[in-house]
Amino acid sequence: MGIRILVPSDWEQVKSIYEKGIATGNATFQTTAPTFEEWDDSHLRTCRFVDDQDGVLRGWAALTPVSSRCVYAGVAEVSVYVDPAFSGKGVGYGLLNELVKASEQEGIWTLQAGIFPENAASLKIHEKAGFRILGIREKIGKQQDTWRDTVLLERRSKTVI
C-alpha cells in the first residue's frame, strides 16, 4: 500500500512503534506513550502519515505546532518513527519526504527537529531531506537522571514564502 494518511484505527500500531522508539533511549525524552486522545490533541490535524505494508505499519510521521502564538503558525516540529524491524529500508526518509510535501501544501514554512546526537540514522535522513543543523542544545533535558543534548535542525520551505 505504501504511505497513506494516518487514521485513528492505526493507533495501536502507531503506539507500538512509538513505544519501541522510547525503549531505544535515543528517540524521545518521553517515558510512556500517550493515549490516542492526548496524541491527537497535541499534533496537527493534517500532515499525519503511516507507511503501510499490507496492513503492517512500518513507521509513522506527524507534525506538532511549536507555539500557539500566531506568528509561529507556519512552524512545526517533525516526528518520524520507524519500527526497528524495518530500519535501513528507506521508511523514515519516505515518510519525512511526504511530511515535507504535505507541510508545504498546508502553508507551513519552517519544519524543525530535535534529535539526540546518537541517533545517526535520523540525523542522516533529515539532512538528506534538506534540513540543516542549527546547533546543539546542550543538556536540554534529563533522561533517567542523565542530562542529554539534542541537535536542533531546521528546514525552511523554498515554496512557502
What does this structure look like?
By secondary structure, the chain is an alpha+beta fold. It has a domain at 2-111: Gcn5-related N-acetyltransferase (GNAT) (Aminopeptidase), CATH 3.40.630. Helix content is 28%, strand content 35%. It has 4 helices and 7 strands; from the N terminus they run βααβββαβαββ. It has a 7-stranded mixed sheet with strand order 1-2-3-4-5-7-6. The model has no long low-confidence stretch (mean pLDDT 96).
Quick structural summary:
With 161 residues, the protein is an alpha+beta fold. It is built from four helices and seven strands; from the N terminus they run E-H-H-E-E-E-H-E-H-E-E. It has a domain of 110 residues: Gcn5-related N-acetyltransferase (GNAT) (Aminopeptidase).
Keywords:
Aminopeptidase, alpha+beta, 161 residues, 7-stranded mixed beta sheet, 4 helices
Could you tell me the radius of gyration in angstroms?
15 Å
Query: How many DSSP E strands?
Result: 7
Mean pLDDT: 96
What is the fold named in CATH at topology level of one domain?
Aminopeptidase
What coarse outline follows from CA principal-axis ratios? globular
Percent of residues in helices: 25-40%
Q: How many angstroms does the end-to-end distance come to?
A: 33 Å
Number of helices, where a helix is a run of at least 4 consecutive DSSP H or I residues = 4
Q: Could you name the CATH class of one domain?
A: Alpha Beta
Helices and strands, in order, run as: EHHEEEHEHEE
Strand order of the largest sheet: 1-2-3-4-5-7-6
Give me the CATH architecture of one domain, please: 3-Layer(aba) Sandwich
Q: Tell me the major beta sheet.
A: 7 strands, mixed
Q: In percent terms, what proportion of residues is strand?
A: 35-45%
Structural class designation = alpha+beta
Full CATH superfamily name of one domain: Gcn5-related N-acetyltransferase (GNAT)
Please mark out the parts with pLDDT under 50 across 5 or more consecutive residues, or reply none: none
